[in-house]
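Please, structure for the following, as tokens.
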Amino acid sequence: MKTSFLLFVVCLGAVGVCNGGRLRNHFYRKSCPLAEDIVRNITHRRTAAYSLLPAKLLRLHFHDCFVRGCDASVLLNSKGYEKAEKDADPNLSLEGFDVIDEIKAQLEEACPGVVSCADIVALSARDSVSFQFNRSMWKVRTGRRDGNMSIAQEAVDNLPSPYSNFTALKQKFAYKSLNVRDLVVLSGGHTLGVSHCHLFSKRLYDFTGKWDVDSSLESTYADFLRTKCQSLSDKTTTVEMDPQSSLSYDNNYYVLLKQNKGLFQSDAALLTNKHAAKFVDELTNLTDFFAKFAFSMARMGKIEVLTGSSGEIRKKCSVVNSY
């Protein structure tokens, strides 16, 4: 996440009006009645076989929406020397592309050229997280269309960094028309999944360049992390982002954060601002977390969407139709 940014289109209205169209509930009710069932069935089957999939698909959705909006640009392959988003450094550990491809292939059999890859990403993220509850945990309005451009540098420029302070995080979210509440709520996605050591090990070994530990990190937790990550250069070892609860969609992230056990520098940064810290307190209530996460996911899911006649419906998610 760096300093150059592209201008973006602000989507207006409660459901996000942008480029002459709008997202709505059950967009495919007539054009592909089984679309959401197909996405849900495949996602649930794949989640049952791979417990880390919800974290992967949620992250894929986030990384898609923060670059060019929710247009499935993160799925496009690089072409020759033109590196696409998925080959940018922040995206090299993304997974779940095979799940999206399987869903798309079945949808193309059922309803050729109808369901966008962007909607598949949004729906599968929701459905994978919802699998443990056997009910949808938030609504996903559909009608997104797919973009036809993907540039690696834009991922570097736009994605929030795990090394960010609060000011940088707030700015990244503001550029996407998301506020401080959205920042704190969406950070709760760190309740799922694992992280590679090199994304936080500086906090353990050389935080200020003096071979010191980040003083904002609880000492016993720091000791534990050092047993897992034994060098600054370890890029292979992974640890749970939410210890003992990394496979469960819950609010334990905020409970740990208040104990100064947030894994990333960007997590700890949420406690450095009084407004953000107040939201952290609120989200230690599970019911509040579920409601507010649903609301902020809906806001994120309409970032700079392409609708109406903009963009295209890709036949294959990894390449544009004209390629």
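Residues 17-159 form a domain with the Peroxidase; domain 1 fold (CATH 1.10.520.10). Residues 35-49 form the longest helix (15 residues).
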